[in-house]
Amino acid sequence: MATGHGRSMAELIGDGDRSVSFEFFPPKDEAGAERLWKAINALEPYQPSFVSVTYGAGGSTRDLTVDITGRIARETSMTPVAHLTCVGHTRQELEKILDSYTEAGVHHLMALRGDPPEGPRAPWTPTEGGLTYATDLVELARSRGDFRIGVAAFPERHPSSESLDHDADVLVAKARAGAEYTVTQMFFRAADYFSLVERVRERGVDLPILPGIMPILNLNAIRRQGDLVGTEVPPDIIARISAHTEPEDIRAEGISLAAELCAELLAGGAPGLHFYTLNNSRATLEIFERLQITA
Predict the structure, then answer these.
(1) Which one, of 157, 159, 221, lies nearest residue 192 by Cα?
(2) Cβ contact 216:189 at 8 Å
(3) Per-residue pLDDT, 57
(4) Which pLDDT score, from 0 to 100, does residue 66 have?
(5) Structure pTM?
(6) What's the longest Cα–Cα distance across the chain?
(7) Which domains are present in the chain?
(8) CA distance linking residue 123 with residue 72, whole number of Å
(9) What is the H or E stretch that residue 211 is in?
(10) Which residues of the chain have pLDDT under 70?
(11) Neighbour count for residue 45 (Cβ, 10 Å)
């Protein structure tokens, strides 16, 4: 599968019979960097449409994100997507960061408002001299360079949103500002994803909506993460996980659940699958084995 910054993400996602993509985060130390590149090397043969690299709260991993995405662009066949948030930055600082991505050879961007420093459910206060919404960041990136831009979507309602319809309106506004595609937060019911797609299509927008996949390998950890981002772990899934006591059995059930969700999403017309890898390839590769996805 060919990649390149001149192609739109819709083209990259649609190149082939299915799209897969992966998210990584900047490591904190040398051991973490070794794990990251081990995961990148293990997943590259699957020819992902793109790989994204997150951006720490308030820009705490700014330089690392730029370095990693630049290295992926230089040393691999994959298309890197750099995350960028509004949190803790003035407009001028954001312009400089966008320029640094361009200089590093990174032309794909995930534009996010970002979470307040106090946590996702805290009230949102824009940085003085900064931007208020992800829509503003999309518009800035479009004006600053030749960026192909993705944004976030929430199948189960953003923690600060008044309704699912409001979430759909926000996503449509981001698309009309210049976003080419969206990746959802993690979720565990395919119906929630398909309902989001329907609401967006009803508003006349057809951008690709990639489902974000996070397998349950530790139920308590997933519950904590879900509480932060507004994702519920359904009772039937809790029951299936809770039927096991041994960590490896819990893990195997979580992989089975994720593979079942992926199969249902693809059968229902999802354009691909985006995996939150946590810098480890094992779970994703196990899901691929269940789905008979080969390199």
Answers:
(1) 157
(2) no
(3) 58
(4) 80
(5) 0.91
(6) 53
(7) 9-289 (3.20.20.220)
(8) 35
(9) strand 209-213
(10) 1-7, 15-17, 56-62, 118-120, 227-230
(11) 10
